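Hi everyone, sorry if this is the wrong subforum. Our group has a chain we'd like a structural model of before ordering constructs, and none of us has done structure prediction before. Sequence below.
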Amino acid sequence: MAKTKTKKIENDKRAIKINITVSILLVVILSFISVGYALYGQRLGISGTATFKPQGKIAITNVELISSKNVRDGSIPAFTDESVDFNLIFEKAPGSTEPNYQAVYTITIDNDTFYDHEFNISNFQPMITNSQGIDVDPSYLTVSLNGISMGDMIPKGDSVTFTLTLDFNPPTDDTYTIGGDLEPELEETPTGNLLATITGATQGDLRESLNHDIATFTIEVMNTFQTSREFTIHVADTSHFKVTNSSGGELSSFTIQSGETNTYTFYVQRVDNAIYTSSSLNTGVYIHFIGGDVTAGSISLLVDEQEIEDETPPNVSNVTAVINNATSNDTTNQTVGSVTVSWTGSDAESGVKKYYVVATIGNDSTTYETSDDTPQLTITGLRDGTYTFKVYGENNDEYKPTPDQINSCNTSVCAVSTNNAFDWHYTASLVNSQYMQALTTTEVNRGYNYTTTLRANANTNTYTYTLPNTITVKMGGTTISTGTTAGRYNYNNSTGALTVYGVTGDLEITAVATRSGGGGFCNN
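Answer:
Right subforum, don't worry. Here is the predicted structure as tokens:
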């Protein structure tokens, strides 16, 4: 490009004119094979309706300046299908403190062809001259891309939008002209493909019980490339099956010439030590070549079904324990405690047969078990104290955790509750009372009714004692109300009869009798 001189701008303005044309060089390697749709359908057994449309083009469809620094207003880019003229002038106004010169563009390329295209850019060698026409080192100008990389594919029927940034850092204040061609190359990828389909039988018999250890299949392959292609045959389910030759060895690759349609035989065998949980398994079949994989269909294999033991114990988590009422109101019996332990458990393979619950208090542990897979158990015969409850399961193949797993109980097959302090025996006492006789009944078990008769002091020659009209009752430290349901009490001030219903804590009874007499004085 010819060098262009410009005049010095007054007021020390720097005007930098950039005439960069981005040209799209279409390097088209076009391959075409005349394979008629009817012939293609006949060869590979494909039926249906095909809709064809004229092939479009690959072209630049939009260019926008989206960000700028020290760019003159009106610097609007122009573009054609194959090139961009940025019409860019860098200009620093008087008093500007912005040190950088930058223009950022978005460029959109649409690929409306039938083929993928590879994106590349040739080496950009800009020519930069100052106001005296002297060449300037092009390293002061940087061109960068974002949103696309060299070698990226622009798929057929798709579009790509990327950003192109021009950064200029001149050595001194001056007027600079920058020119040069930036040429993206959009190269069409080779056309053609390998097409494949299973022909003949699609079911094979690999039942060892019938001495069947190899199954035979055929596959038809078409090559629409202009050159020959090498390919191999594979099954998708490699955990159960393998492709072999007729003697059980490795099947070699095949080579198919351009434009040919050939039939190939391959064999399938069981994989050693594979587990078969069904009597019939399906697997996909595909061919692999440099360029990709092509699905040919699926085949079905008959096998001997195996029963697989589930060696993994059930999973257990979220162990909780809830206190129940005592099993009797015998206050002399220390083992009337009852607790319901619940948890979450599962076994996805064989299912849960039963669970074990280990109740521990101090150094004493007792193991209980459920009768089925219900994740809950009510335990009785417990005494007052602090308990933990450890739960593990047994599956229907009778596998449960090892003793070490149970002892440590820190894996998914064992879970333990938090510490739980439980009491089933409670006491009753008079608190802050006056002129009252001692209680005749001082104990009650959880969940049962406490009954007693309050008695004022016995009358003397000097004083007469009368039961209080009202009393106060606390249960577990909380004042309760009168009533006849659990957690309430009923008091008869004529007889002194007191009943506390459904006791769940220690009882504190406050009763102040009335004293009268004593020389005409009445003391309350």
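For your construct planning: DSSP finds two helices and 42 strands in the chain. The chain has four domains: 10-188, 194-302, 315-422, 425-517.
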